[in-house]
Fold each of these.
Amino acid sequence: MKRLTLSVLAAALTVLVLSTCAAFAYSEAPMLKERVSAGLLPAVDERLPENPQVVEVVERIGDYGGVLDVSSIASDSFLGPHGFLMGEGMLRTDTDYSTVVPNMAESWELSDDAKTLVLHLRKGVKWSDGVPFTADDIMFWWEDVEMNEEIRPSGPNRRVWQPGGEPMDVRKIDDYTVELTFSQPHPLILRNLAHGHGMAMLDWPKHYLKQFHPKYTPMEELEKMVAADDAYDQWYQMFLDKARQSFSVFLEPGVPTLDAFMVTEKEPGLIRLERNPYYWKVDAEGNQLPYIDGVRVHKVSNITTVNSKIITGEEDFNGFHTSLQQLTTYKQYEQQGDYRILMYKGIFGTEVLIQFNQTYDDPVWQKLARDVRFRRAMSLAINRDEINNSLYFGLGEPRNTSVLSSSVVYDEKFAKSYAQYDPDTANKLLDELGLDKRDSAGFRLRPDGKRMSITIEYCEADTPKTPTLELVKAHWDAVGVSTSLKLISNTLETERAMANQIQVGIHHADRSTDPLFFTEPFWYAPIVHGWEQNTWPLWAQWYTTKGRAGEEPPAHVKHLLDVYEKMQITTDEVERIELGKELLRQQADNLWTLGTIGSAPYAVIVKNNLRNVPETGWWGWDGYFGYPYHPEQFFFVAE
Amino acid sequence: MAATSRSLSHSQLVWRRFTRHKLAMAGLIILALFYLVAIFCEFTAPLDPLHRYSSHIYAPPTPLRFIDSEGGFSLRPFVYGIKSELDMQTFRRIYVPDTSKKYPIRFLVRGHEYRMWGLFKSNLHLFGVEPGGSLFLLGTDELGRDVFSRIIYGTRISLSIGLIGVTLSLGIGLIVGGISGLKAGTFDSITQRVIEIIRSVPHIPLWMGLSAALPPDWNPIKVYFGITVILSLLGWTHVARVVRSKFLSLREEDFVMAAYAAGSSEWRIITKHLIPSFISYVIVSVTLSIPGMILGETALSFLGIGLRPPVISWGVLLQQAQNISAVNTFPWLLTPAFFVVLAVLAFNFVGDGLRDAADPYSKQI
Amino acid sequence: MGSYIIRRLAYMLITLLGISIISFTIIQLPPGDYLTTYIAQLSSSGTVVDDSLVASLERQYGLDRPIYIQYFKWIGGVLTGNFGRSFDWNEAVAVLIAERLPMTIVISLATLVFTYLVAIPISIYSAVKQYSIGDYIATVIGFIGLSVPDFLLALVLMFSFYRFFGISVSGLFSPEMREAAWSWAKIKDMLDHLWVPMIVIGMAGTAGIIRTMRATTLDELGKDYVKMARSKGIPEWKVLMRHPVRVALNPIISTIGWELPRIVSGTTIVAVVLNLPITGPILLQALQAQDMFLAGSFILMLSTLTVIGTLISDILLAIFDPRIRLD
């Protein structure tokens, strides 16, 4: 708790100091200046809030201008490379990947019992259409969206907004102060507000959306609008669509936003963004950000196209679709394509996370998968150095599932536990387990006489899986466990994982750094029942449905759930770290999941004329990709 | 009896004409070689296609040498050992020949152990170098596996898909087309519509829909057959149309009429008279549709819905080569394409030759 | 002739009905639906998709209704010109198709013209100089065209051009032209980019035509009237043009109806590799994402094109070649 208050103080102080130095007339982009002189836009001083956020630049004060070209192969959701350019949250995680710092809320007070959080919003921030952003917008989000039963049939997110099972209480104190009250201590709310959930709160411009909401517009009128558009049957379909919350409409022009860029045009294959003239951040000299005039997002259909655009120098910035496997080729064309390759660190505790399903419907397998000796043997049988040297140029870290070194709960011995290559011990352990008989092909036989074979089902997402798994397969075949690989679609994986049909599942261990480890320690306890979870689907189902479905987990697993729950509510930061370490200790000892290579390098490709991009950093979902690095201060060197 | 001797002399005639078609003969020889390699791939592949030479990742093809570093000449080609190091500036693995020891290439060498057709053990290989040397004729892939040996193993899967698929298409096509041609009427109109529908719908969606519907529990062997069936499900319509129209026109030919008049059973008429009269035609069209199957397999892999590693097929190998690195930095990963082209070319030549030989006045349908 | 066309039209309607059902069914064949795809996609970058989001999306899109109801809703719309809405693009399907169709037609027509311009002279030459070196070269090149997997050819051509000439042939326009309004410079820029896809897509078709046309021309050359004409001392090229070539052209001309839709579907994979702004990549993406109204409408459209093309071809054939029996 002390730590948190301290950091709040420190952050508030920084803002204060910086804002006093910036207390002179602000400057703006030439493009906006023209509009101001044409009378199309109010002057920059009127557009900026009382206390704009001052962003420290990485290299130097930037030049205005330029359009950034990026490609996206994702659908029109926020997953594309534009995502990091367009998110603004209530709070933010700092570049250390751990500390929570102010963003839209310039300060906050969390009560000692962690049941009340008061957020002080920046005064005078305006939506991109010039309408002030106030506490009313937050109230609209909570009362008219999250608590509306037609929009959210099963209520707001339970872990974040309903700690202890009760929806939080949101109260407007004045136009720029909001108070959140919880029925149980919820200290981790700050971490939630620094990630995606804190962004989701700021997505609801009341002045625009109320025309689609029955509380503010008579139902008859809404029904007329719904009837006029054959895309909708119900008012809430239209509402969510207009709010950019339905399928793939994250980038819809015309919706007011608080982000650095706003969508101005959307056509199949190309989305055009332009700077938000009301953006509420400035550099230390008072220049309104962003420096870049606009962004063009080109939608392409496959990764090869993105990679070819990278080497031909058509991509100004790409950290989303690069692959270490292509590094040699990126290097080969570095000069011709006029770009530089920045080596960031991926946020994956392990790039390929191996999960033995302990609740899989096969009694013989279940007995094995639940035996720690089996999991240790399988871990020792993997030659991680070979994976590292073959696929990661030796730059990754051979390890088992655990958090990364940036985390406050990091302990090297957890990460190294059973991560060495020791096939002899692996064979000995497997023999001890009653797998000592072999068939004519040299594979072990299970106690019931069948060949000891396992099937890994996986899909390709985020990190490359196939090459690593081909190696793992070879390593396991070599200790007599016949392994087959099956690549399936994301969709199918989701269905089969939820239905407990996957014997050995694969994921990637994000959530291995502080922004997400405490709130979502998915790999260490059965707290989520979804596609990412194949270690104990039935136990996870039991926990998430409060015992209505699934299977009750054994005592040692309930202990993990206990630790997780305590970690969520303790107001003592030291105790939280201890609890986090307990989860990691249990994992290191029990190997619920196996790791391969973690902390691997991540190539971020930047055109040479694009500056203010940090030379190195962490890259990935945990920090919301580029969000900690203030992409709004990237700029193109003026010619 | 008369029919037999007639068809015998007919096939002799066809063969004679066929041998005069030079490209077709060349194609036939290539195909014979390909299938020999496919049948005995364990023996013909110099290295284990699954073995990873971890210190030889992305090694370029090993040059075959006749002249050694001292200028000595030997008729028997040899290779040098290779040393590798990783350049952390360019992230490129550099391979330099180690000229201290020569490894001559020999026939019938002992190498890694395998089970021929899964039945008996051996370690005899058609050619190779002594242990310690490394002979990567077409380089290695991202895990250090020998590309040449993988292509050889891929031959077995890719070429058999063509054969099995075509046999299936032929079976379905003969039966459906035959019934359709004989029993005009409702059955005929229905099959005609079905054929028209299948031929009108673009192939890619059909492939994707069907292959995604393959049960996820299937093992690679079943998936292999599933994919073959999918390819042939779309391929039979051509045969059926040809058979149908032949039946329709043959029904009115004199020799068939005569057989009917002589009281022969319908079955006998079909098997003794109708089928022999157009079987050569069907064989030709079948030969010409095998290449479609082989290319179809690679297209399925491109779309990510075909066979998958660790199964080795040409499509799988090409799919792994579909990235900027393969084209720019490690071009030897594209060599499976050469074999695809060669096989398809050979089939086309043979089919063309057969057509010319069987019916020199026919136009292409 | 009139009754033949009417009968064919009636058949066509039955076929189209069947096609519409198949188009819709094959999208439903893979497990899951767009919602599962969307959820998988959200979770793949780490978002925790909770029940509340799933429930609200499911209700919003009515994806839980029985398939046949979804089909009738869709086909009812199609008959009134409303193809539904794409989940993936949040845009009316008709708009998406209309936006990509012009470029698709430009590329397909260009390919068709290219195919004929290359194939017809070569095949005439090959037939006249049968078994000459030129004939062999033409045949082999033609066959190679049939044998190379098109995606690979596209990939290799694309990178060779960048590597050796520094030209990026990906897409239909260079980056600086993509934004520009239509002008001569832009048309020229497009032509510069057009020929790689043209070659790649046209390759197989060219080879096919060379084979057919060479064979037909050879047939005709063997006939008596040609010998007669030659013996009369009529110049060789006149003999050639007057009849054999014309006869050999008949089947080629009359199959245009088939060719065009074949090219449109054939471009899919190449368009993905070369990043062309045409229908193929959208169709593929729609199929992968199970974006059912978009994918279904696309398949229906392409199939209808083929059916109509076939009908036109058959009618043309009947006109050109009276020997064809009209049954």
Amino acid sequence: MSVLVYVEHAEGKFKKSTFEVVSYAKSVADKLNTGLTAISIGTVAQDELSSLGKYGAAKVLSVSAEKLKSFVNQAYASVIAEAAKKEGANVVVLSNSFTGKGLAPRVAVKLQAGLVAGAVALPETDGGKFSVKNTVFSGKAFAFTQLDSENKVISLNPNSYQVNEGGSAAQVEEFQPATNDSDFKAMVKDIVRASNKVSLPEAEIVVSAGRGLKGPENWGMIEDLANALGAATACSKPVSDAGWRPHEEHVGQTGISVSPNLYIAIGISGAIQHLAGISSSKVIVAINKDPEAPFFKVADYGIVGDAFEIVPKLTEAVKAYKANN
Amino acid sequence: MKVLVCISNVPDTTTKITFTNNNTQFNTAGVQFILNPYDEIALARAIELCEGGKGTVTVINVGEASTEPTIRKALAIGADDAVRINIAPSDSYTVASQIAEYAKDKGFDIILTGRESIDYNGAQVAAMVGELLNIPSVSIIKKLDFDGTTATLDREIEGGKEVISLPTPFIASCAEGVAEPKIPNMRGIMSARTKPLAVVEPVAATALTSISSFETPAPRSAVKMVSADEVAKLVDMLHTEARVI
Ligand SMILES: Cc1cc2nc3c(=O)[nH]c(=O)nc-3n(C[C@H](O)[C@H](O)[C@H](O)COP(=O)(O)OP(=O)(O)OC[C@H]3O[C@@H](n4cnc5c(N)ncnc54)[C@H](O)[C@@H]3O)c2cc1C
Ligand SMILES: Nc1ncnc2c1ncn2[C@@H]1O[C@H](COP(=O)(O)O)[C@@H](O)[C@H]1O
């Protein structure tokens, strides 16, 4: 028995969500009195791989086969399942990222494992059961999902588990899985990344704006505030429906669910569908000219006033604070 | 071309979520059920791909008879026929098993699902069906083009997109951007009543997960208002009190 964690990288570098998932998997392994192995697929430098030891991985399997350089769902799932078998791992942990959402279900089927998607806490293992808290109803509630199978797969929501450091360098081992041609029917032709943009699902601070902003031409001040805070930008559904902002910024029940440390809502009324996607934010700030806006009922801090006056002032105040700290 | 669209029946987005039986069951009293919003996007794209006699769209739902109004809605929007696998869904794996079992010998070129169901949000069914049928799956796409032999999909990734090319058959889960949902017209609503809806008995499939209980998020403490003239004070509070900046 052991725990296996799949570690995602972007162009050879691990990011915070990877450290979260390794820290989480290490705590799961501790709970089960077993060790943690990580598996990385693609080109990642040795020292980057061994640095995962800091977060608790004793060993890192590195798959650097040319064929597996770009992400193919089916092939990656086969590799992860094969590694789990080789390591005798009966718990596999992944991030509930866009990539994890494609992989985890395939890995689970291959291992005949129950899958809990969107975990937000460590498993409870009292009385021989294995139960994991996860988000359901788009963040309107949580479930305790019990995994009844021998093998188990868990995908962890970003920003839901603290990064723990303390371990030392991990031992890196090259792993050469068997590959099957029928796994490579899909091909990645291109990857387009907006540089310098903070990724919304993983962001620690989110600055979000709604229809109160009147039009796309007014988003400059939202971006200025986001830049000052190092935040990602987001919006309400009508804003992306109207084409003022891209779809991938739409937050809520039918958009992205986020759980940042700080969510700042500007000119958003606070409809139930919007709140569903942001309710697990740690701190919420609402800025709205209507003192009766429903957002103030869920916010921790509020300012009643005109966004066009307040946002530039707030940006200045953030810059002043950053200059002094 | 044959396209299969998987549809789920979910609580309306305005539903206030509560539980009964000691928080072990979702309280459906007074809840209105709708076609999952993402499945509407998948269905709209399927209809566009098949327009002008290029193919047929079948919708499939795993559910009991109570889901039929939602299935009829999909027919009214423009699906050609429907299948209902007659069993209450217990977990994503059992739903995927039923869909895969039905689809395995029907020759569907493209299978589409929504990105996730807005009730249990697993975002699991598409990739599980893909695995069970041993065909490629692409989760969370924003664009789907098909030239008759090869499909080109944009898959969402953190901070960008990946452009993927693949042959049929495949399965993909659709998010916004793939198509605009379609509103049924009068003719659609009339013809939906007579379009075929087959009820198929389920195969045996064992659930691998079960939900032991639910919890609603802890209520938040009362809002602290900051005056519009003292914006800098908010920054100070976020730093010293909330400790988030
Ligand atoms: C099936 C379905 C799914 C949905 N899913 C989602 C979802 O996932 N996410 C989502 O966001 N919505 C969703 N919605 C829509 C949701 O119901 C609301 O309509 C939407 O959230 C409202 O967006 P808004 O707050 O930007 O706009 P409005 O409700 O128009 O609110 C604008 C706010 O701006 C304030 N304002 C105006 N001018 C200013 C100013 N100068 N300064 C400061 N404040 C100002 C107003 O007081 C008001 O509160 C969904 C709806 C349906 C039917
Ligand atoms: N009971 C069901 N019957 C048919 N399709 C379903 C069912 N449940 C989920 N799906 C499909 O799978 C997608 C993802 O659902 P989920 O994995 O539950 O988040 C949905 O958008 C539907 O397209």
Amino acid sequence: MSRDGIDSLASTALLGTARATADLACAHTAGAVGFTDDDPALRLLSAAALEATFLAGATVPVPRPTGDVAPVDDRPVLPAAAAERLRGLLTVGSSLLDEWFAAAARFRAPHALVVDLLDKALVVGEQHRDAMVALAGPRGAWVAARNPRWAPLVVPAPSEDDVWLHGTAAPRRRWFEKLREHDPAAAVTRLTRTWSSENAATRQSLLEVLGRRTGGYDEALLETALDDRSSKVRETAVRLLRRLPESAFGRRMTQRVHDWARYDGATLTLTVPDPLDASAIRDGLGLRLGPALPTAAAHVVRSLAASAPMSAWCPPATTPNDVLAATVSDEFDTALRAGWNTAAAYHRNAEWAAALLRRDGTVGAHVAGSVPPDVLVTHLRAASGRTLLDADLLGALPAPWPLDVAQRVLTALYTAGAPKSRQFRALTELLAHRAPFELAELCADAATRTDDIDRLHRFSSAADTLTHRRILHEELS
Amino acid sequence: MTTPWSPARIAAVAPDPSSLTAARGLAGRWSATGRSDRALWGLCRGSGSKPYTTTVDLDGPAYRCSCPSRKFPCKHALSLLSVWSTATVEETDEPDFVVEWLAGRAEKAAAIAEATTAAEPARTPDPATARRRAERVSAGLDDLDRWLGDRIRAGLGSVPHNRDAYDDIAARMVDAQAPGVASTLRSLPSIVATDPDWPARILAEYGRLHLLVRAYRAADTLPEPLVRSVHTHLGLPTRADEVRALPAVRDEWHVLAVRTTEDGRVFTRRTWLRGRTTRRWATLLEFAHGSARFEDAAPLVGTIVDADLHFYPAAAPLRALLGARHRPPLPLGSPPGTDLDTALDEYADALAADPWIRTWPALLAAVVPTVGDDGWFLVDRDGRALPLGGESDTRWRLLAASGGRPVTVCGDWDGHTVTAVSVFTDDEEVAL
């Protein structure tokens, strides 16, 4: 509908009727009525009122194409109560978010939640971003692709390599991480192709990405990186190669163990060449990774133990237990143990991890993760009091804990000292997040019975968390 | 036989999310639960020795519980409703405490109704007061008309459009007891500041006010409903008891949207209703001061309420008060929308009856929201479209709800753009 009439009236109004005369004839409504006002200003106002009202009532639809349609998401919709729960958890940044996302993986978000999820995903940390984007699903991706505000959430397709070829460092790394997750071998192939033209900082940053889903396909590039100009890149390459016991690097290390270590009955003797040859230096045996040790040779022994495949240490017909029982000189004892711990964690070697636990009574958090859960449970059942409250071992035991273990931990906490301490708090929180839900009542009981206000706090908050978790899972069932 | 409440409906009556969470924890603590056509009751084991007695009047709805909670409804009432929705609660005879409470409620309601009717004559305003008021309004509007004429004579390009220029005349309108005019005037400086095409809009606004002045002066010659509309636009109040005394329109009202807005600590809740048989639009407006706690629960979006509505007298009646409810609400499913032309016609009819209205509700069926370089649109299946206005966030939510598929959109049409307030898809209804 033409707006010439109202625009003409407006330009007269802009100049003022004292100076200009309105041309009322050009309005759509010119012939409709006679205006009774004598004053030209008021006559203009009457004409404008009529014309504006006419225009508002005369709007007609305009032709427009409809766009494409969002792909269908077959997953069942998140139950309403669970969606509400998620809002609450996100608002407070709850520690239960990981558990919630793991339990909700088979659902899609209701469409009403998609915009909130995308907005929130922009501001939450890396930790939950992918889970939120996954929950928003294809509908979320479809909407995000249309709004520049959500561009950072759009997953770059590995086939679209513009970002990789021409992008800046951060988007390139993100693209590379996605590809690594999607197709780890393809990722290392892409990196190999541009390796020589990347600067040191980029080589270092991208090489670290290979720390996820490390495999045999990475070996060739890592070998190249051992000769890198940058010491940081060389160091990263060594760390990554240590995870590949089947590699040439592993075989070289095995050879060194055979050359340098000698079993003499129950005694293990190590002879470290001084100086190291070029090949040993290239393989990172001269690197001092970790806390200081008394001698340079001890550093080499620790690196060797951390780098060599664990089977290298076991002569035929011996087990890790036998090797660990061997006597080692004071100089190398600590170094060897530290190196073996590292290797057991890197290789996720359950046999060695269990053997280390058996010998030492405890292991660090990273080794504990490799101890088979049933071994861990047996070990914890045999422990009591202070030795039971081992945050590293308990932290490695996945939820839900056997009820008796959870009860024993609660009992130990009931009498444990320093309920104000950070450690006590960490343990009650661990209990609250890992114990079976039935423990809630016992926790609440413990809270009412204790005469210590801090303990009361911790136990009742653990009971709340357990109840909260039970409801959370019920809502998602 | 009444149907159990859906979780959404229970959530809608909860005072806050924490009450809902608390209510979930009580599911296993109920005993002696029962229900009748009009009520639901049960005993909930609490921390004390005596269980709490909880009753829900399903028609109200209203809640009573013997617990000390000051939240309303309390977690026990919410839990009881949830228990009903998830498990079966047997239909039995109402125990005495239920019968007594419901009888008490009915008595109180009757007493209030009687008091309203009885007080009616006493509340009729004094004619002398009314006349003085009319004189004040009339004098104020004369000033306004002079002010408008002067500014048009001098030229909109040469007079100031800052806040001060409009605040003076707006204050004069408040004195003249025409607050509706005052708020229009106060909204004008921002149009000048933000819209490059402001002269035409400002001129139209001035014209609208001039027309209002003329209509007020010519009230004797206008039909009564139009005079009431003029008064409403000026901001003269209409008493609720007068509205309630008017004949009711009974229909099965589709509850299409509820929106609560805040302006200077005054919360306004607006509910969009459309009659199933009459096809009439109605909006309920409620106000609360300080916090968003309204006296009554709003009808739940996505339900059908069989009820009486009392419309405020107007040339194009829209605002209404909810009167008697005849049956418990039923789920709505997908509401029957109209095509674009019907919505535009309804708007044009309303505008013809009352040229001062700014928006009119619309329920557009099978439209696809689209966004492109030339803006937002709602496109129907024939590829005809109306521009989509409103806040950016609202439009993205609408787009997310539709995913490029046709949806039914409830909103307001102002002659230029649609502002969406809720959307109905095949499987969800979404408040925007």
Amino acid sequence: MAELLALQRRFAGALLDADAAGQPETWLCGDAQLIEQRLAIYRGNVLAATTKALGAAYQVIRQVVGATFFDGLAHAYQRQVPSASGDLAEHGAGFADFVAEFPHTASLPYLPDLARLEWAVHVAYGASDAPAWQPNALAQLAPARQSDIRFDWAAGTAVVDAGYPVAHVWRIHQAGFDGEFKVDWSVRESALVSRDGLLVVVSTLLAGEGCFVASSLAGATMGASAERALAADPGFDLGQLLGRLVASHAICGFSIDKEGTP
Amino acid sequence: MKTLSDMVVGIGLRQPHYREVFEHRPALGFLEVHSENFFLDGGASMHALERARAAYPISLHGVGLSLGSADDALAQRHLAKLKRLVDRIEPALVSEHLSWSGLGGQHFNDLLPLPHTHEVLALLVQRVDRVQNLLKRRILVENVSAYVQYRERDMSETALLDELARRSGCGILLDVNNLYVNAVNFGFDPIACLDELTPAAIGEMHLAGHTEVDSCLIDTHGARVSDAVWALYEAACRRLGPKPTLIEWDTDLPALEVLLGEAATAGAVAARTAEVCCG
């Protein structure tokens, strides 16, 4: 296997850097010029595959910055965080951090938040289907016990706390949006990403609401989460929020410890 | 698990065609997808695949397993995902490529060619054994189009595939377009390659279009099957028997009826050869 390993290392080196190809005419047929032409095909294929995958995960960003600039971002990202999987759905997890540091996107300060939102949408798209449940069971619980419940959340549910109105930016770029194509950049909002059946939904959360959902997603009881939410926003309306979360199937069940369990 | 009859033709199941396929249910022997597009826990894509599975046999065609990597860094995770998909979908066919895609934890997401040597053959037998033991089924291994050739070479690609099938019990997915593209790019006789293959080992054939760029044929999977490839397909059917055949079209997708037209042509060619085939 040693020979194959050496050969593949050389090939990999040639793919990553045209100048590092060494003397490929010693291990590939043809003259140096022909080989370089052919290796370029493979280099192109690699970039095309990862760029396409990144574009599929970050469709709104691609629209916002334009295809040409996005391709440049994708190429730079692939150089910095090369694909590490045959499953291209995994490529792009670090894109938010990348655009936060990349000098040429500094003039788009909302881009990292938008990237975080888009990745959460991408993850939610392929997340497990939520089980069906009976929300009546919640109402049937004795009021004294309700604060002890822990909610079950649909797989892929996430809160994206952003400094910019990225949920709104995301929504106005969706096919079929026919509202005003306009953003109020002074608004700061949290976004909730969740699955409603097969559909990924992005909705806006007020400050206390984001706090509640994040706390509950982390495993805290309803009571503890509501306390934290009220501390962040005295106007927090638990009933209103729960109504929306149950109706949209973001919440898909609950559990409660046995009486007397701490 | 149902096996496919030899005379069936299939097409790739692609997202722009979902609605039409589900609504009109064209008469097809099977649908093929790239396994890696369905390494998901749930959601709309999986739902579409399961809906397709309820109506058609499914062929899972992998592009990312990298059977021929000298190091094994990425295989275990990838295989686990593939196994989960195979267990969930119960496909009629599972296939991969005679290629490598990654090294040292980096994946190139392309099908890179392997040298056709005894060393590589021995490695592939091990790797195919591992996959088949894990999936508890036979897989097919496909010949690839290559744009470079290694100086080190012990045998032809088809001879290597045939020997791999003999030693590991895997099957062969003969991509007629890839064979043609290589024959033109490297100057060999593709008919002689057909004669190196054991008919019973062939589990599926692929047909696709190619493009010429700077006097090199590129396997683009973005065009109709060329006349020369139809002729080679007919020769393959005569020598190897009709086999389940896929019309493979991955880029610049045409209307569904174009794919169905290509599928019908493949069916007609196969039927024409069926009477005169090797007994």
